[in-house]
What does this fold into?
Amino acid sequence: MSQYRKETLCIQGGYQPKNGEPRVLPIYQSTTYKYDSAEHLGKLFDLQAPGHMYTRISNPTVEAVENKIAALEGGVGAVLLSSGQAANLFSLLNIAQSGDNFISTSSIYGGTVNLFAVTMQKMGIEVRFATPGATDAEIEELFDDRTRAVFGETVANPALDVLDIERFAALAHKHDVPLIIDNTFPTPVLCRPFEFGADIVTHSTTKYMDGHAQVVGGVVVDSGRFDWTKGDKFKELTEPDESYHGVVYTRDFGEAAYITKLRVQLLRDIGAAPSPMSAYLLNLGLETLHLRMERHCENAQIVAEFLEKHEKVSWVNFPGLTSNSQYAMAQKYLPEGSCGVISFGVAGGREAAVRFMDSLKLAAIVVHVADARTCVLHPASTTHRQLTEQQLADAGIGSDLIRMSVGIENVQDILEDITQALDKA
It folds into this structure.
C-alpha cells in the first residue's frame, strides 16, 4: 500500500479485506489466540514464525493500524503503545541503558521534559538539553562515547519552534547515533521526518491522529535506515538476546531490527499495550486525518493573522506568519502548514490572559490540544507547571503565554468568540 498517496493511505492503508471479509477493520477483542499445534506456538515464541502470541505484544486490529501509520510515515514498521509518553520512553529505552545519555532540544512538551530529566534520570539515563539557539559547536560538546540518540520535536509544544531536522540529523549521524523525532503536531500529512534524515519517529496519537479527544495512545515508527552495526554502541541489537534463545536482531530481522526488539522485548516486559478498541477508534480518526489537518491549518492561519492585528494582543507565535522567526524553517519542512496550534500573549499579562480564557464561550479550557474542537490552555500553570523558571525560559514559555488549539469549526464563529473574550480581558 505504500505506493498510494497519503490521502489514500489514511483511508485504505493497513487493512485490505479479502473476499467475503468485513469491509471495515474489525475489533479483535481477544487476549489470546488458538493454534493447531504446540510446535507452531513454540516457533512464535522463538520469533521463527509470524503471527500473534498474546495481545500484550500484538493483535490483528492493532497491527492493521500500526501498518497504516508506518506506511504514512514511510517506515518499515510501527508499534502502537498506550500513550505518547510511553512512545517517547520506549524509543529511547530500546537503545539506552543505565550509564548512557542522550541529547534533546529543550523546547519540548513539559511532560516529556519531566520524563527525561526526572524519571529517566532515576533509571541512570542522562538527558543533556540543548536550547533551540545552540550552535553546532555547543551541541557537539554534549556528545561523548555513551551518547545514544538525539531527540527533538518537529514543531515544539507549545513554543512552536520548528526543528531543523537536516541539521540535527547530520549532527547525530556524525556521532553514529540516531535522530528521534516526535512528529505529533504536523503528523505525516504535513511532514515526514524520514525524508529529511530522521531515523525514528514518535507520536502522541492522542492528538491529531485520533482527532476527537477520545483515545489516549502513542506510536513508535522505525525508518529502517539507521545502521545499528556501525561501531559498538548498540550491542542490544547486534549481540544475542538470551531472553529469546540468542536471537540477534540486526542479523535475524535486518532493517526491522529496532522495531522488532521494541515490540518483543520492551512491550513484552513493560506491557504498555493499547487495547484493540483503542486501536479501532484511532483508525477512525486516521481515516479523516488528511481532511482535518487541511482545515486546522487553514483556520489557524486566519486566526493568527487576526490576532497579530488586534490591539489587545501583545504578541503572536505561529510559523505560518511571514513575520514569524520560524517562517523560513516552516516553509522548508512544512510548506502545507505546521498545525492548528497558536501561542500568543494578551496585553496586560497573566491576569488579562486568565480573564480572556475565562470569557471564552466556544473555545474550552482543557488539558488537551489538537482535536476537532477549539481549546485553550495556560501551559506555565498546567502542562509545564513542574518546570523550573530556567526550564520554562529554555522552552520558550512565558507566564503570559496562551496556547490555542484551533479546531475545525466555522472560522468566523471562532473569531467572534475570540473577539468577545478579548473585549473582556
Remarks:
- The mean pLDDT is 94.
- Residues 3 and 213 are 30 Å apart (CA to CA).
